[in-house]
Amino acid sequence: MWSWSSRGVVVEQWTRREDKRLLTGRGRYVADIEVPGCLDAVFVRSKVAHGTLRELDCAAAREVPGVVGVWSAADLAEMPPCVQAAAHLQDLPPVPYTLLAKLSTEEAVAGREWPALVKERVRYPGEALAVVLGEDRYRAEDGAAEVTFRIDPLPAVVTTSAASDDSVRLFDGLSNIALQGETGEPIEDSVWQEAAAVVEGRYRQQLLMPSPMECRTILAVPEGDRLTVWVGHQMPHRLRRELAALLGWSVDRVRVVVPDTGGAFGSKSAAFPEFVVVAYLAVKLGRPVRWIEDRLESMLVATRGRGQDQQVRLAADAEGRLLAYELKIDADVGAYPHLGVGLPMQTAWMATGPYTTPRVHATLRSVLTNTMLTYPYRGAGRPEAAIALERSMDVLARRLGMDPAELRRRNFIPPEAFPYDTPTGRRYDSGNYAAALDLALETLDYDKWRAEQARRRSDPDALPLGIGLSCYVERSGGEPGGLHEFGSIEVHEDGTVTARCGAAPSGQGHETVFPALVAKTLGVDEERVRLVEGDTDEQPEGLGSFASRSAQVVGALLQHASTLLIEEARGRAATLWEMPVDEVAWSDGAVHAAHDGSAAMDLGELVKATGPLRVDDRFESGMAFPFGAHAAVTEVDPELGTVNVLQVVAVDDCGVVLNPMVVHGQAFGSALQGIGQALYEGFTYDEHGVPALADGLLDYLLPTYTEVPPIEVKDTCTPSPSTPLGAKGAGESGCIGTPAAIVNAVADALHIADPDLLQMPLTPDVVWRAAHAPKFEEEVR
Prior knowledge:
By secondary structure, the chain is α+β, with helices and mostly antiparallel strands. The protein is 29% helix and 25% strand. The chain has a seven-stranded mixed β-sheet with strand order 5-7-3-14-11-12-13, with helices on both faces. The protein has a five-stranded mixed β-sheet with strand order 9-17-16-15-10. α18 (660-679) links the parallel β29 (642-653) and β30 (711-715). The protein starts with a strand and ends with a helix.
């Protein structure tokens, strides 16, 4: 059901189309697809983080009943290295940086081959040494257990500080600093010296796991001279190009199909080493090959998110007007630079946040470490920018003796200043940041909580209470060169409509939102519209689903294609009725004579009379900059180090909302992931650089239903002028705005002097130590 509002088109649906299938066990995932003669792949993995491979013996594994074959790198000498080294760099749109950074990335990967299977040297724990194919998963596991190997350990570096001095090099003769960059102009010393207040801090953005419900999956099926690949993936057309390049084939010989996919959060958009091996062996053997990553395996070798060490300086005058902001980033990009080496540029570009700071300078170093590769994870560089700036804003407010809300309000970019060019090179499209903050404070009942905080501070037996704020701006849609999408609208003789696009769903609700959008534009019942996506045979060109681009870019494409179809239908009717096109009107899914209604024909009848009706096109949108204000209230027990989140308010502005239910779900889930970063999640390593994951999710804590605090999601609406729908990205808000709000609330409760003491995740040990450190008043005296 659709309705119109003053904010634009809104879909009012309280169930998603896909939910009935997914919630009743009728979803079809890669693991559910049955193919005769399919072999299951199991990878033999390194138990060390860094070392030299001396011996690898597969003989005993090949004798295990049910094992079809076992291969090491030496057995597959003709197999190319991991495909990203070549094809990924030719594919600018999906990568999160500009052409200049792309050229730097080409330099970064030179001399640093990422083999699909280890050849001589292990560089991260779990790196694949060999692959076993069995008649089923059980037999393949039995075979993998018989593979023996010897690795001479080398010193491992798992932090940017340990790796950046190059005392332990991951690649002989090459620095661990794979890329350096900057944006904005360097800030003169006089600015810092003459400022009324300058605050500094060091913040650690810990490595996180995206943790989708379904881990990585791939099924490669040879079919004559073609290869069909079933895979949980966000960019099927990119994967098709990369696998075709790997095999030396034309792209039309590879079909990639994305069935139901249990989440991604950015982690399923590359051609991983395991994908390369599976596709290669499927073609080599002429048999289907499947790899289903299990949870422990995923925790060990799936991509990571975040991973930055930051130094910041923020200066203001006596009235709290911001003067300058400096951000230095050392980013942990993992053992190979092929995936995330340029990702920290997103943090640098978004360093300005929502403020009119006249001088902003950000520098970065992408550092190689003995960890799995860092890659975009929900927010992808923007949470790192928001956390550093927003934590610094609260420290500055305490230094100036100002209310943190007032400090922010005093420095917001005003609505009349848009489009706004930031010192770091971004052009913000539209915004009303004060409105979002005001709504957040009103929803939180800010004054009530401040009064309660004052009461508790006068009561020696009361637990400390803190209020934290975080205001953010993010970028959605992608970078220039990747802001377009391909698709089509086709009408059939029975009057049904098929909408195709280059996106790929992983839980965003495309099946609900896109057909409703097409139906509204055409004026037909949405049950008549079917969406086809995630299939490179059905839709030959496409970019995919990343960067919160679904509504902003793909939705705009489908509306555009629907409009083109209407014009084509009017033209056909004009020819059929021998009248000028401007005398043919369109309404409610039908053409009719505009003046007297003497002729009328619905879509099905028009197709029967004039032949197949389909329009294909490419549509390009502009960048958009969603924003919001998040607030949190926490209660801290200084003796136990525990944090009780009493309330979270998330106010986000993603422009025109197409489906309130879907957007609400995105905001709520993303906020919960933000809470996970603030309080629970993070990798710890033993002395050899191997992550402590023996007990799975008992060692890596994710927030569960028990840890969900009261979360209230609200929105403001500032339409984007960059797209005809006025929509901005809505999927990443909570990961960006919530973590700093939580940490600021804990810092406010403890009133600590040194912000460096509170490094995420805020475990009881971290909080206890901060609670027993000198307080802010002691530092001032």
